[in-house]
Amino acid sequence: MRHPPAHILMTADALGGVWQYSLELATGLRQRGLTVTVALMGPAPSAAALAEAEAASGARILPTGLPLDWTAERPDAVTGAAAALARLARETGADLVHLHAPALALAAFDGPVVAVCHSCVATWWAAVGEGPLPDDLAWRARLAAEGCRAADRLLAPTRAFAEATRAAYGLSRAPEVVHNGRRWREALPEAEPAAQPATHAFTAGRLWDRAKNAAALDRLAARLDVPLLAAGPVEGPNGERFAGKQLRGLGRLDTARMERELAQRPVFVSLARYEPFGLAVLEAAGAGCALVLSDIPSFLELWEGAALFVAPDDDAAAAEAVRSLLADPDRRAFLAEAARARAARYGADAMADGVLAVFSHLLGETRSRTLAKPLSGAAA
Q1: Nearest to 284 by CA among 329, 232, 355
Q2: What is the CA radius of gyration of the chain?
């Protein structure tokens, strides 16, 4: 018996890497015959950006205005958003719901729910804070823990983060690992790789987020004789702000501008204290940039043997690593090619296939249960 293509309701936000992840995944699922509706939470990008995203991914994108779990002011705002998503799933006829935050699983969904552990306040605080969780984070962690147990399946982008999530919430088993992936395409004419790599360093991310460790990057910039360019917002929706003195800020870059910056093949640096995956690193590696990374578990898992590693707060060691690459073109070229080859493992097709396997298993179980139910009034 053939079933119609499954309809997936997927949540996303446009404030960070989840947006790119969601569009890449939606594209892959559409190519595999699924229908995808994206429920966009939090601030929405411009109408032009939304139209471009819909055209590129083939998904229907619905700005909901619902609060994000990490910016909501009260617990009932999160559970209310979850309830609204359950209603939207019913209204759109979704067969399965794919959530970008486990806390959003705390509602009565009619079908199976997959929650992706992209990041969470408990593991974030363990990396950047001191002492017990502040009250404003403690209730968010409690909802995340409850959501982890409510979801039918949990996913995480690395083994390191899956294990950190299991430990943080006392789960009986770690989330299943499906690496994030990027769709590598032919470069735009204006973003063709430079004949010679640039003689500067580059970083990208939410600079206001303490996890990105922009303060250490700023100290690193002061030690270098070449510029350290920094792409990304310096002010967050939660009021956090970063004011650097030595970094050369570029602000938030669109996709085309980011591709042009990476096409110059600068030395890419991330001194993050916490990064469940790191899509910016993946993009830099795919563009052929040599990498200098913090030696946190997720980066070591993904990039060991294809990058230079330093302690997150050791700006002196980071400066020496950057200088050594700039002074040794052969070593830099070797590491850049190693990074590019490693990035090829983390493609969008592998990600879509991994997620689809989880969906197929859950939808198969659901349909089997449905078919097993006796029809009303049928003879015993």
Answers
A1: 232
A2: 21
Asked whether residue 259 carries a pLDDT value surpassing 80, the answer given is yes
Among 114, 69, 119, 82, smallest CA distance to 96 is for 114
What pLDDT, in 10s, does the model give residues 207-255? 999 999 999 999 999 999 999 999 999 998 777 889 889 999 999 998 8
Query: Would you state the structure tokens that stand for residue 314, as one six-digit string?
Result: 């050791």
CA dist list (Å): 369 to 111, 150, 187, 212, 356 = 12, 19, 47, 45, 20
Angle at 240 between CA 204 and CA 142, to 5 degrees: 100
Complete domains list, the chain, with CATH: 7-182+347-372 (3.40.50.2000), 189-343 (3.40.50.2000)
Is residue 291 within 8 Å of residue 306, measured between CB atoms?
A: yes
143-156 confidence digits (pLDDT tens): 999 999 999 999 99
Distance CA 346, CA 344 (A): 5
Q: How many Cα atoms sit within 13 Å of 218 on the Cβ side?
A: 14
Beta strands 308-310; 176-177: pairing state: unpaired
41, two tokens: 């939470």
In contact, 309 and 302? CB cutoff 8 Å: no
Query: Cβ distance 322 to 307 under 8 Å?
Result: no
Beta bridge partners of 62: 39
The size of the chain, in residues, is 380
CA-based torsion, 217, 191, 279, 238: positive or negative:
positive
End-to-end CA distance of the chain: 23
